[in-house]
Write a structure and sequence with these properties.
two-stranded antiparallel ribbon, Rossmann fold, single chain
């Protein structure tokens, strides 16, 4: 990615797993980016369109959740491991506090958005969360089920990715090639299918509960596409979080960050400006 030389790896281990945590120096305010769950995804790939714009103002931290990208896969199930991912996010937050002297703003995408909300419910030091295309719980749509099935080849991945956008645009071939790379590594396709064997149960485990919502004290912004087929408009999340700002973007599917980058950046700026000096 552009500016990759500016990123620095922070060696991280948890439960015997090596986990990728990268940081890039910028402003004084740290941001931790938590990616979603999808075929071949990584933190940097998920948030690529936002990074160079956010970089000058914020100190960016990106993680790859266990089982994705540069982080190790678990040896034993469950592979869809919400407690492990929450522990990984907590560990990253503590590392950021050591470096920056304060907890980060959390920005999460899809299931990563829900994980960010669940993290903030458990911590009083998280003051701001931006959840983009956040999943709200079961049932899993047919489109998400297809996206959560290991592709047999590049054409299969393209077919699963197209409904993630409002008008089913063909994804960038370079992005398809990068995502397919993960599935060419040994038995990763079997790992991925085992992780997501029961999409309804996965969404249930990842969902923000009523009890967690009641504990949330952070400023919350929900950003969602009106034409999201994978995780339709989060009415349940909006009901659970009546104080949250909700930005619904027209002509936009699940892949909000790539479809309407400028609108997402506007929502992030607005959220940050509510709680930080301009």
């Amino acid at each position: 990615m552009t500016g990759m030389a500016e990123w620095r790896d922070l060696p991280t281990q948890l439960d015997g797993l090596n986990l990728l945590h990268q940081m890039r120096h910028g402003g004084d305010v740290p941001v931790l980016l938590v990616h979603g769950i999808g075929p071949g995804t990584t933190g940097c790939a998920n948030f690529r369109p936002l990074l160079n714009t956010l970089g000058p103002r914020f100190a960016l931290h990106v993680i790859d959740l266990a089982g994705f990208g540069g982080s190790d896969c678990k040896l034993d199930p469950p592979f869809f491991d919400v407690p492990l991912w929450l522990a990984q996010i907590d560990q990253a937050i503590e590392r950021i506090r050591q470096i920056r002297g304060r907890a980060p703003i959390l920005i999460g995408n899809s299931v990563g958005g829900t994980l960010a909300l669940k993290t903030a419910a458990r911590r009083t030091d998280i003051t701001q969360v931006v959840a983009i295309s956040a999943s709200a719980g079961p049932p899993a749509s047919l489109y998400l089920r297809a996206f959560w099935t290991a592709p047999r080849d590049a054409d299969g991945l393209v077919a699963a990715m197209q409904p993630m956008t409002a008008f089913e645009a063909a994804p960038d071939p370079a992005l398809v090639q990068a995502r397919m790379g993960q599935f060419l590594k040994g038995s990763y396709a079997e790992y991925y299918n085992a992780m997501l064997a029961d999409p309804d149960e996965c969404l249930r485990e990842a969902a923000l509960t009523q009890e967690e919502a009641a504990m949330l004290r952070a400023d919350v912004t929900l950003v969602h596409g009106r034409l999201d087929r994978a995780c339709p408009m989060p009415s349940r999340l909006a009901d659970l979080l009546p104080d949250a700002d909700v930005f619904l973007i027209g002509n936009c599917g699940h892949n909000v960050i790539y479809e309407h980058t400028a609108r997402v950046l506007d929502a992030i700026r607005g959220a940050v400006n509510r709680t930080l000096p301009l």
